[in-house]
Specification:
It is a single chain. The chain has 403 residues and is of the alpha/beta class. The chain folds into two domains: 146 residues, ATPase, nucleotide binding domain (Nucleotidyltransferase, domain 5, 2-Layer Sandwich); 188 residues, 2-Layer Sandwich (Nucleotidyltransferase, domain 5). The chain contains 15 helices and 14 strands. The strands form two sheets. Strands 5-4-3-2-1-6-8-7 form an eight-stranded mixed beta sheet, with helices on both faces. A six-stranded mixed beta sheet has the order 11-10-9-12-14-13, sandwiched between helices. A hairpin with a 7-residue loop joins strand 3 and strand 4. The radius of gyration is 22 Å and the shape is globular. Bound molecules: adenosine-5'-diphosphate (ADP). Adenosine-5'-diphosphate (ADP) binds next to helix 10 and helix 12. InterPro entries: Ac/propionate_kinase (IPR004372), Aliphatic_acid_kin_short-chain (IPR000890), Aliphatic_acid_kinase_CS (IPR023865), ATPase_NBD (IPR043129). Belongs to the acetokinase family.
Length: 403
């Protein structure tokens, strides 16, 4: 690697999408960001924003057959900005990988053995890991000489103690099928818990934080002194909080009931709980803005969906307060957590007994900066801390290749 190789390309590959950011790590600056959607369809679309040149956002529509075509298209966009991926300034490519099982506890340089292990985890992450593997192979073909680093969504949660990670089911069955709680959104929980400590002027090792990552997918985590001790997602991202389209916690007997009584197939139940549940299942909308608008108009289904969403949040706040013993901060993040003041206010209402409260004026401030929303002198600091998973992936990637 040359001394001025300070750029990192971050790739987040979905089954039909490819999100990317090119960052310069010497200045911690984003050079370009973009997204390719509907890969494999006639209507593929690339949206590229050249931040370094300050140019206009560019949109290209037209068929892109596969991830290889998508990567070549984004590489051409970057080259047009003078940021080509053949540049010696590119230090590494960092890949978001959803499931790293128990083996990957830290960012990892990808080789064939690592790819095999990611492949071995496909049964526990059937939607995500195959797409991540495709993204990695495509990037390897483009720049075989460059370090490719995997940053795992599960890694931050591998510090969970067994009593938090195990389900109370037959151990032999669980072990045979690698059934346990892995947790997800780890990159975000790691970034936000550390950033929250910074906001308090403390070292992460000194503080206990509850992180509420509330996006379309949503998860909570309990972080003690910088280490995750519990998180709400489990074997898959279905467990835990009420989400945009996922049910979160549910009695597992509901699934047998749906098979026996409603005659639904396993795939139909999977689709019901992952795609037609949560806020969408309860009221038909998963966008919190729309739900709030409907509530303001007196819509009862929207109001009940909101209350169920908030009730679940409160239960996790209480549970994680007990798990941690002492809570220094609660951090709200992701689309809903960063933007929906009414959700934050409702989740914190009545929790004064736990030392948690929200100041109405502070909560109403809109900003992209981390900020406190609890009243002055509150025992627990309540904060809004915007997440930045791409920056975290880039930092972990760069740290590994420059170590
Ligand atoms: P993803 O899980 O897809 O990464 P995000 O973290 O981007 O999701 O969150 C998307 C969600 O954030 C939307 O579905 C919407 O409910 C919510 N959201 C975004 N902006 C706002 C806003 N201004 N007010 C309330 N909710 C918002």
């Amino acid at each position: 690697m040359t001394a001025n190789a300070t750029r990192v390309l971050v790739l987040n590959s979905g089954s039909s999408s490819l999100k990317y950011q090119l960052l310069d790590m010497a200045q911690t600056r984003r050079l370009a960001v973009g997204l390719v959607e509907r890969i494999g369809e006639e209507t593929s679309r690339l949206v590229h924003t050249p931040l370094a040149t300050g140019g206009e956002r560019r949109v290209h529509e037209g068929p892109m057959a596969d991830h290889d075509a998508a990567l070549k298209a984004l590489a051409a966009e970057l080259a047009a900005d003078g940021l080509g991926l053949d540049s010696p300034q590119l230090a590494a490519i960092g890949h978001r990988v959803v499931h790293g099982g128990l083996k990957f506890t830290a960012p990892t340089v990808i080789d064939e053995a690592v790819l095999k292990e990611i492949e071995r985890l496909v049964p526990v992450a059937p939607l995500h890991n195959p797409a991540n593997i495709t993204g990695i192979r495509t990037a390897q073909a483009l720049r075989p000489d460059l370090p490719q680093i995997a940053v795992f969504d599960t890694a931050f949660h591998t510090t969970m103690p067994e009593h938090a990670a195990r389900y109370a089911i037959d151990v032999a069955t669980a072990d045979a099928h690698r059934i346990r709680r892995y947790g997800f959104h780890g990159t975000s929980h790691a970034y936000v818990s550390r950033r929250t400590a910074q906001l308090l002027g403390k070292d992460p090792s000194e503080v206990n934080v509850i992180v509420l990552h509330l996006g379309n997918g949503a998860s909570a985590s309990a972080v003690a002194g910088g280490r995750c001790v519990d998180t709400s997602m489990g074997l898959t991202p279905l467990e835990g909080l009420v989400m945009g389209t996922r049910s979160g916690d549910i009695d597992p007997a509901v699934t047998f009931h749906l098979r026996r009584v409603a005659g639904m197939s396993t795939d139909e139940i999977d689709e019901l709980l992952n795609k037609r549940s949560g806020l969408v299942g309860l009221c038909g909308d998963n966008d919190m803005r729309e739900i709030r608008r409907r509530i303001d108009e007196g819509d009862e289904a929207a109001a009940l969906a909101f209350d169920i969403y908030v009730h679940r949040l409160k239960k996790y706040l209480g549970a994680y307060t007990a798990v941690l013993g002492r809570v220094d901060a609660v951090a709200f993040t992701a689309g809903v957590g960063e933007n929906a003041a009414p959700v934050r206010a409702a989740a914190m209402a009545g929790l004064e007994g736990l030392g948690m409260a929200v100041d109405a004026d502070r909560n109403a401030v809109r900003s992209n900066e981390p900020r406190l929303i609890s009243p002055e002198g509150s025992p627990v600091a309540v904060a809004v801390v915007p997440t930045d998973e791409e920056l975290e992936i880039a930092q972990q990637t760069y740290a590994l290749v420059t170590a």
